[in-house]
Amino acid sequence: MATHFRFLDLPAEIRLEIYRHVLITRTKDGSLPITKLQPRHLRKPICTHTPRTSILSSCRLIYHEAVPILYQQTVFSFGLEVEVLDFFHEVGRHNAKHIRHFKMEISFTAINPPLDPRGRLNLDIVRCIGNYCPNLREVEVGWNDYHHYLCCRPALVECAEYFRLLVTRFKNAFPNLKKISSPEMRARGRQFMYWRDRFIPNSRVEGWWDNGCDLLEANGWDLSKKVR
Predict the structure, then answer these.
(1) Res. 59: pLDDT tops 70
(2) What's the total number of domains in the chain?
């Protein structure tokens, strides 16, 4: 009499390894894959990997076993925009609670200073995301276009205040957070300051960027440069 192989007859630990192989594709350096959420295309995220999610529709047991792996071992990357909340709403709290890692891109530009209403709204979004991701462990912060904004002393003072508010928001929103990092912040800041001082001599703010980085490190940020 012919016998049939049944996937669910495998030991649970073997099934979990299969889910990792099917759903998670490590990058060449062994780091976690990234799924980038575009605010205008949240329904079609950009993935650095190709998860074979059809396995999730096999049966309810497989779905409940595999979904935590999919969300826990993927880095979600997005800008702090209101539309991001739509993504968490679609995913739902049950799935979002499994997210452990994400990367945020924050912009400092002349049309979007950090403490204007939109900048403050971004800080509030951090708190809202905290309601969906209570088990978040690691956050990486990227800074976009801030070299266009750092043109005068008031702007620098605002950025320092923004850093302080971010530290407070992160600590309050994510009680289980283990690591906040911004790997290229110190190096890129020095580069932008170098070019800025060439065009604006005697600006007298040479040490500001390093002072801001020291403030972040004193509050638990990891600014060591990494290669993803």
Answers:
(1) yes
(2) 1
